[in-house]
Structures are given as structure tokens and as C-alpha cells.
Amino acid sequence: MSSLLSTIDSPADLRRLSRQQLLPLADELRSFLLESVARTGGHLGSNLGTVELTVALHYVFNTPEDRLVWDVGHQTYPHKILTGRRDRMHTLRQLDGISGFPRRDESEYDTFGTAHSSTSISAALGMALAAKIKGDERNAVAIIGDGAMSAGMAFEALNNAGVAEGRLLVVLNDNDMSISPPVGALNRYLAQLMSGQFYAAAKSVGKQVLRNAPPLFELAKRLEEQAKGMVVPATLFEKFGFNYIGPIDGHDLDSLIPTLENIRHLLENDSGPQFLHVVTKKGQGYKLAEADPVAYHGPGKFDPAVGLTKPATAPKTTFTQVFGQWLCDMAAADPRLVGITPAMREGSGMVEFERRFPTRYFDVGIAEQHAVTFAAGLACEGLKPVVAIYSTFLQRGYDQLIHDVALQNLPVVFALDRAGIVGADGATHAGAYDIAYLRCIPNMAVACPSDEAECRQLLSTAFAREHPVAVRYPRGAGIGAAQPAGLEPLPYGRGEWTRNGRGVAILAFGTLLHPALAAAERLGASVANMRWAKPLDLELLRELARSHGALVTLEEGCIQGGAGSAVLEALQAEGLNLPVLQLGLPDEFVEHGDPAKLLSMLGLDAGGIERSVRGRFASLLDAAPGLKAVG
Questions:
Q1: pTM
Q2: Where are the domains of the chain?
Q3: Residues carrying an active site annotation
Q4: What is the pLDDT of residues 497-509, one digit of tens each?
């Protein structure tokens, strides 16, 4: 452990250092961060870029009394290291370890939990006004970066904050990067006018030339202030009611610390909301990450001396890759197809689609609500939009999904990646609720492929429909099922009786079909691959219900309101009365950890399914005669 960093167990320790010690501390922090993430995997580039900013914020502000709200959450590793969690970084994103995002129950320094983006200004404003109401002398600081300013919620909060009277500072961490390359007019404006070299170079040269001529130097300073609004976005943010400061170098502690100290004094003097614009570089200090920030956004384990390398054996094809290949193949077959992503080009598997069909590819930035209604507008004009979006992020566009797509019965396909357990990213990224929140919407259909081949086929089924359809699939690879070369669909709303058994039938929705089959071998039970959570295959359900003594529903989604609930509702409507055991995700947020271990802990692996079924229906399994499969 390096000498300075080993002495920092809290920001109070940091504030006891001299200004001269902060630069070597930042260097040690960056080295420790790189070595730590290389051992565990995790978000790297964004955190390398916030080292100096984190040091400066904790040095100037009296945390945790002053509130820091980080946004997006994956830029907080330096913050975690400086706030007493240095010795637990080896557990990062592992079961029973520390989270990769801020969590209120993990540390008093994590003032607000966030994992995706664009919530910080709203939360920090609430904290600032709460302090004012309570008579507390504290500051609230929102640190917003990684493209989060492209979301409408950030501007809703700015609009409110500009007329509020609280001690609020918004720090825009402008690293010209979200997870995918940044998009949109605002980002282009920031990149060209603020982060470019023109303004800084011109200002620096002008000051050097005029420094020895005091009257001219003062005149130039006044002219600079007048011209600044034309060159940098001071006007934009000042129209919201903020005092705009910047842009400044976010890696220069000699600029950051005095600037933040001046801002703190402004806050203490009730000078209104402040806006500080800092320019940082994603991957700062690690040349490989600087050169390829997308690849080093969230790497797995690697050797820092070597960098990322290709695995010795080719990995299985992931569901994301299956979707990406299908998207390209269907786009080649049907010119009406357009692809939409809210800033997740790489994560959703759309890199090749953008390369091959650039005029039909739309990255709308971190703006899920807009993505959904934008798709609706395209569909109104006869195009066939495919929205590639994580299950958990579609929640942000739920109102638009109901009113703009489903109510008008528009043919939009939602490719829901990361359905179910996601592993190291934890509860904030888990796709636990999509079956429940989608199946209650009229005109909406929900497909649950069990393997890679069915994923491709059900995407084709969804694309052929003239109403909205969601196809949900998990993160990572499946069983390795060979995919068909063509674009043949599967029958709409139809499942399949997969295994003939006795007494009990397991109705599997999605990839849990395979552990269900393994459990059924030992139980002697029947298994059905339901494929659709909505519409249910009622014919298959009736046949299973009439020929078995009990049913078990199985889904990698929440039990409340999920596919099992749909089965219960259908049985009641059909007048079929038999016991049903619902297996799925419990009524709690599932923590981060290895996905296979989490599924085992939740009883959703083959052994857990067998135990649950045997524990509930042992007498049926022992007594029932064999049955003949139907269809």
C-alpha cells in the first residue's frame, strides 16, 4: 500500500493533508484503482477520469455533512476508496461485497442510490431545500457526467432549481463520453465549443500577450466576460438561473480546489445555485483506456500491463449477439426496419447494425422516454421500429409505452436485454419486473425464448405482428443452441409440451426451461415450454391442467403479477381448480453476485426447483400414473 493513500480512511483524513500532498495522493489513488479493477472487473474508464475531481470535492466540502450525489453511479470508485472502503474493493460487485454503485445502506457518504443516470440534480435539490427548511447549514452537490445531461429529467431539475433558494452546486463532469459514444445537439455543442482547444488556447495566448500591459489586460478580461456567452454555454445555464463557472480542467487540482473553494463561499453567502463545468478524460492516466474508452468502460479481469486480450477459446454466442445478428438480417430483408437505442449501442449489440445500416440506426442518448415515443412516430408512418433496451431501463418509458405505443396499437418491437438476474450490476440493472408491467397493458404481447434459436425465431414472430411485442432475453449466453439461418417465425402465442411426465407439470417461461427439464428428470414430472407470457397458450394450459394434479410456474421475473399470476388468472377464468406453485424472483431486490450462484440461492436452479416441487407435491409425484404428451 502506498504511503499517502494508506493513511486515508475517511475524507476527514484527506482534509488534514496539505495542498502539496494532493497530487501524489491522486497518483496513488489512480494506480490503486487500476490494479483493483483489473483484479475484480468493473467500470474502469469513467472512474479513472474522476480521480482528481473526487479528491477535490472531498477536500473542499465537509462530507458527509455536505451531500455529494453522484450521477451516473458507475463513476464512484474513487469516492468509495476515499470513504473507508479501500480495504473492501477486492469484493467489488461480488456476492456479499460492496456495490459498483452508490448505496445508502453501504455508507453514510453515499447520500443517494443511483446506477443509471440523470437523477442527481433532482435529488440534490431536494436535499438542499430540506436543509433550508430544517435550518441546517449544509451544501448539496450533484456530480453529473457520462452523458447524463442528455436526459430530460436533468433539465426538468435545472428548470426547478433555477428558481429555488437552496445551497446547490451542479458539477457537469464533461468527459465527452457516455457508455456509447455521445450523441445529440447538446453534446455536440459542449464538445465543439467548451471542451475544444480553441477557447482555452485563445484565452491563454491572449493573457500572455497582454499581461505586461495592465490597462489592455483589464480590457481584455472584460471583453472575455462579454464574449464568453458566445463561446461557452454560460448563457444556456444562466438562463436556467445558475451562476455558470467554467469550463476548467478536471484533472488540474490547482484549478479545481480554488474554484471549488470560491463556489463554497458563494453557497455559504446564499448567492444562488451554482453550475461548475469541468472537462475530464475518460480513462485518464491509463493509455489503453484513454485510446479505447468504450472497451475499457466495464472490462472483466485483466492484466494492466498487457490490457484486454481475446479469450483463448471462443465464448458462446450471447443473446445480445443473437439479437444483433437478427437485426442485421431482418434489416437486409425488410427496408422498413429501423433500430433505436438509448445510448446502449454496444450493450444492446447494435455496432454491426450501425455500420451496415447507418441511415436506419438511431441512438437517441440517455432518453428512454423519447426513444419509445420516437419509435411510435416512426411506426405511424409505416416503418417497423425495433427498440433495443434493457428491461430495467424500459421502466423509464412506461407512460410512453402505454399512451404512445399500446393505446394506438402501433407495431413496435421491444428487444428487452438483461431480463432476469444480471449478476454484478445488481438490483438496479436486473430485469425483474417486465413481465408484470407489460402483460397488464392492452395490445401488448410478451415473448420469453428459452434458448438462442427461439430468441431469433420469436424476434421474427414479433416483427411480423401489427401490434407492440416485447421479446425478453437474459444477459450472457444460453445453452449454445444452433440458430436457424433464416428468419422463420414461431407460431404466435403457442407453447410446446416438452417432456412427458406424471402428476405435476412445470410450465417454464424463458431460459429456466433447461433447469426445469433437469429437475423433471428426477421428479418424473411433465414440462411445458410456454414461450409466451402474453398471450398464454390457453389450449396447452387446459390440456396440462386437465391431465395433471398440480402445476408449477417457473419464471426469471417477479412472482407478483408475473407469468405465474397470468396462469392463475387463466385457470380461474376457465373454471379449472387445481393447486399451483409459483416459482420466480421473490418480493425483494436481489443483490449483486455471480448469476448462477444467485439463481441457486433463490431456488431457481435444477436442485432448487426439484426441492420446491417435491416439498409441495411429493404425494402427487409418488402416486400419479404416467401420462401421454399432447401436441
A1: 0.85
A2: 5-291, 319-472, 496-623
A3: 282, 368, 396
A4: 999 999 999 999 9
